[in-house]
Design brief:
heterodimer, A: mainly alpha, 13 helices, 2 strands, 72% helix, B: mainly alpha, MetI-like fold, 14 helices, globular, MetI-like_sf (chain A), cell membrane (chain A)
Chain lengths: 341, 290
């Protein structure tokens, strides 16, 4: 490896000298030829080697582990085929974790998207101090998920939490945020929403600003009010970006760990006393490192992997369809406008 | 709702048809202030809680002004967890990962964007396909390997799994493909520059803005990572792990926990003050490309 690397580096000193045609000795010719042929591969090699070692190999090896009876301490104890998968697919705890993951994901993805569109629409106007307001919606993003969870976990505390205190002042019954299923999902989703809505709003804002302003002007000339313009022009134009946001939210949301892990540290099982908010990655964690069952935990990892890939492919197909319909729609509109004027 | 409100502004609009970029009214600024408060209040509230004795948290209405116990609570945080060590650990881990990701992504991104070689398209498709692969799910074999090598407990175990990212390569490729004219590379080659020298004198200067943005986001991601460090270095924690250990006791003293949350947020808040503009433009630029 190092031997092949030396020729290009040794010729490094030449280019700074004033221009003069190169002496074409056979050695210099072959060296330069080798440089041209090999360099592209040498530059991408570190990425592929490292990514193979620490990114892909572990995933593939997870599959190998999942086909075995495998304990954290005692190691592999025999090939069992797909038994671990069968066991997990019939385990109510696995389905419980999947339900919790999807429920928290939906409770965070949908309000997040609506909120982000709203914030982006407000920021898309001709406001004063643009940079300041744009930066201000990004502040939650620099608070780390651990810190967010600690802050919200304290606010959602059942006895002394900020939120229940306020509810009681308004003479509403306190909500059992950490013991009931739906409230705990809402609480965890609110952490995700708080941190990511502003970030996504900026992505959508960029898409909104890419819509040509003269389309709005001609619509305004035709008598379309701001609300009408927003729903029939802005929203359709940013739909591809909205789908992009949803895809990223899906990949991240299905792997949620930090928030449910730290939401209530006093329970023995991670994810609530009755696993009310135990997500799939948390279940995997518990299975692998508390119950030391690497075989089953690996099966869970692969099942989740397949689910994420499935969601990704689905999103991709849907977005492709919508994108093609969308571009036709926009083209048609543009033609109409052209004819009218 | 919308059908009743829509016609009214349309009438005023018609009188001033080209006024779509006029200055917005109070409603807009009111909403912006609401967003601002919603985004900052939880932080401000934890600052107040962190400066007060824990009895404050049980009061019906939360106080609006900080108390006088900040340093006492800070001392308590320092006594409970190795704050300075973990801060240093986080700085080391995030810096090494950032340098590595930016360097290797720029190299590979430049190669994919500007050099011609056999198999380029296929390998690029591979990189794009791995963008969405949840590598986090490979923690079990990674953990076994780290244990085998005796790396658990060392910072190397935290650093190694994220030395490269597919996103970084894709991001740099997308940026460089447009910004470097092919003629510039050819000119450097004609002048007798080697490939590496061309990369150094043409590629790197052109890539610098994108490298800065990629570096910022890589640093943030490494800094906020929790699952993997929690697994491999619970005894020699990064800042996030140390912070989470503040509440691992049976009885949780929230004013101490929140003081910790505030302290742990300060470094990134500082980064935000220094580079917030770049963060904003980075997110917005990534959106247009993606």
């Amino acid at each position: 490896m190092t031997a092949t690397l030396t020729p290009p580096t040794s010729s490094d000193t030449t280019p700074h000298e004033p221009y003069r045609p190169k002496q074409r000795t056979p050695f210099a010719y072959w060296r330069s030829r080798f440089d041209v042929k090999a360099s592209p591969y040498l530059y991408i090699a570190p990425f592929f080697v490292l990514f193979g070692l620490v990114g892909l190999f572990p995933l593939v090896y997870t599959f190998v582990v999942s086909l075995n009876e495998w304990n954290l301490l005692s190691g592999p104890a025999g090939f069992v085929g797909l038994d671990n998968y069968v066991a997990e697919l019939t385990d109510p705890f696995f389905w419980n974790s999947l339900f919790n993951t999807v429920s928290i994901f939906l409770l965070s993805a949908i309000p997040q998207l609506v909120g982000a569109v709203l914030i982006a629409a407000v920021l898309d106007q001709n406001i004063r101090a643009k940079t300041f307001w744009r930066m201000s919606v990004l502040i939650p993003y620099v608070v780390t998920p651990v810190a967010v969870t600690l802050i919200f976990s304290s606010a959602f505390d059942e006895k002394y939490g900020l939120i229940n205190n306020v509810l009681q002042t308004l003479s509403i019954d306190p909500v059992m945020w950490k013991t009931e299923t739906l409230p705990s999902h809402l609480a965890i989703a609110s952490m995700v929403n708080w941190r990511w809505t502003g970030y996504n709003a900026l992505i959508l804002l960029a898409a909104m600003q890419a819509v040509p302003r003269d389309i709005y002007e001609s619509a305004a000339l035709d008598g379309a009010g701001p609300v009408r313009r927003f729903f029939s022009m802005t929203l359709p134009s940013i739909r591809p970006t909205m789908i992009f946001v949803v895809i990223t939210a899906t990949v991240g949301g299905l792997q949620i760990f930090t928030e449910p892990k730290l939401f209530n540290p006093t329970t023995a099982t991670p994810g609530g006393p009755q696993r009310q908010y135990q997500t799939t990655v948390l279940y995997l964690w518990d299975l692998a490192f508390n119950r030391q069952n690497f075989g089953k935990a690996s099966a869970v990892a692969w099942l989740l992997f397949l689910i994420i890939v499935l969601f990704g492919v689905l999103n991709f197909l849907i977005s492709r369809r919508i994108a093609s319909v969308e571009s036709r729609f926009i083209a048609k509109k543009a033609i109409k406008k052209g004819k009218r004027s | 709702m919308t059908t009743t409100t829509a016609p009214a502004p349309a009438v005023t609009r018609r009188r001033k048809p080209l006024g779509i970029d006029k200055r917005p009214g109070f409603l807009t600024y009111g909403l912006l202030i609401v967003f601002f408060v919603a985004g900052t209040y939880p932080l401000y509230w934890s600052f107040i809680a962190g400066t007060s004795p824990s009895s404050v948290l049980t009061e019906t209405w939360p106080p609006l002004l900080p108390g006088g116990q900040f340093w006492q609570n800070v001392g308590e945080v320092m006594n409970t967890v190795p704050f300075w060590t973990s801060l240093l650990n986080s700085i080391i881990v995030s810096s090494v990962i950032t340098v590595s990701v930016v360097l290797f992504s720029t190299l590979a991104g430049y190669s994919f964007a500007k050099l011609k070689f056999r198999g380029r398209e296929g390998l690029l498709v591979f990189v794009i396909a791995t963008l969405a692969v949840p590598t986090q799910l490979g923690i079990i074999p990674l953990f076994m390997v780290m244990k085998q090598f005796g790396w658990t407990g060392t910072l190397g175990a935290v650093i190694v799994p994220t030395l490269v990212t597919a996103f970084g390569v894709f991001f740099m490729r997308q940026y460089l493909v447009d910004v470097i004219p092919d003629e510039l590379i050819e000119a450097a080659r004609v002048d007798g520059a080697s490939m590496l020298s061309t990369f150094w004198h043409v590629g790197i200067p052109a890539a610098r803005p994108a490298m800065a943005i990629l570096g910022l986001f890589t640093f943030m991601t490494a800094w906020t990572d929790y699952l993997w460090p929690l697994l491999v270095v619970p005894q020699n924690p990064t800042l996030q792990v140390a912070l989470s250990q503040l509440q691992s006791a049976k009885y949780v003293d929230y004013s101490i926990v929140l003081t910790g949350a505030v302290l742990a947020t300060l470094p990134l808040l500082l980064l935000f003050v220094l580079a917030g503009k770049q963060l904003v433009s980075g997110i917005m630029a990534g959106a247009v490309k993606g």
